[in-house]
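Blinded run. Sample ID left blank on purpose so nobody reads anything into the name before looking at the predicted structure. Input follows.
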Amino acid sequence: MSLARTLAVQLDGLDGHLVSVEADLANGLPGTTVIGMGDTAVQQSRDRVKAAVVNSGQTWPDRRITLALSPASLRKNGSGFDLAIAVAVLAAAETVDLRRGAQTVWIGELGLDGQVRAVRGVLPALFAARRAGVRSAVVPLGNVAEAGLVHGMEVLGAASLREVITHLGGGTALTGPGIRVVPDPPVLPDMADVLGQPEGRAALELAAAGGHHLSMIGPPGAGKTMLAARLPGLLPPLTGDQALEVTAVHSVAGELAPGLPLVTTPPFVDPHHTASAAAIIGGGSTVVRPGSISLAHRGVLFLDEAPEFKPTVLDALRQPLESGEVLIARASGAVRYPARFQLVLAANPCPCAAARDLDCRCEVGLRRRYLSRLSGPLMDRVDIRIELPALDPVALGSGEPGEPSSVIAARVLAARDRSAHRWRGTPWRYNAEVPGAVLRRRWRPTGEPSRLLDRAVRAGLLTGRGYDRVLRLSLTAADLAARDEPTMPDVATALGLRTNGAAA
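Blinded prediction complete.
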């Protein structure tokens, strides 16, 4: 046999395309040519594969070798094609019998010594292969636990090319994923550590119950960062489908923790304020990687010292906040990543960050310009806006622990269950993600609550988007109070949190 074919997968974001890797051995001047729109890593695979084959005790064919990655019009990138190329060459040279792996996807990077190294994106790649009808895969041993999350596929892990050759020869089988042991969930920061700040605690609970975005402005040491870091501990664990979705994003980004192939708790991402737009939104010149907003999918994106971020970075959040996804377009194509996260903004009231207003030396105009870096269109998408006062010395001196996260999380879960029941039969499960038109058809305030909101709109305190967000907050407040529909106190609370008390 001078022609052999194997299968691999090319990822574009979380979408995968099955790639046919063909190896043709012909008479002529010895050499290896790779065709099929491969990037530098793909072109260099011929040298990695040749060294890996020789160092695995096999002879490299002394013939003219043509490697074709089809479809030819699809751009290929990364080193994950190495294993598929090596097996195709060995099969074409009749060194191995490919009948045992003809309908198998081969994923992995080869070291010069023949070791099969872990690569990014194995989970979404195998999902794509399964959709294409492939039912078996060989992946690096370091990715086998992650690959084992894909049901309906026989997955084997290889530590070296030598093991693969032995396996295809009918010798010792490769390693399977084994029985998946679900690790204990990580220990998250507890709300019991937060002293005082009853307004902040109530706002955080409301944000968790409805999936609302939150901003906190207050002096240093008021507890903004502590509160934000404890929001994931109030959120319900990810469902099975959500966990796989989040894990796929982290797999593409190479952010999966060793020994934890499945992300089961809402992620918490807190990038530094010097982060670029590509780091936050996602990007890259050849391979488009997910950014912080996608790594925070189904979790929390916390921007501490939010006014210190570049305005272009902050305003780039506006579209993902509405759509729950981000489309990153490059000359080579467009990649879509999920980005349904809860945004938490924290800021000091002025650049000098004085602990007391009496100590602040910033002019009024400077303070206004500092907070105006958080643009109006961005803040219009933030449901809850609160000002945290300096920490009460009485609360600090008492040392009495606050209400623990477990108790608050139980109320949040009950509220989310009520919300899921309200929106049963729709694609939405919690109030913050329901479109305004659907929301108003389901519930519209009447009587005094309606007049209160009308006055706020006429006074310029609410935009059309803000009106809908107050309705969502009102429903969440009612869910926490175990009411079917909001009452006047619920609407007043929602309006006060939305306008930071300006409507009072």
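Unblinding after everyone has recorded impressions. The chain has a mean pLDDT of 91.
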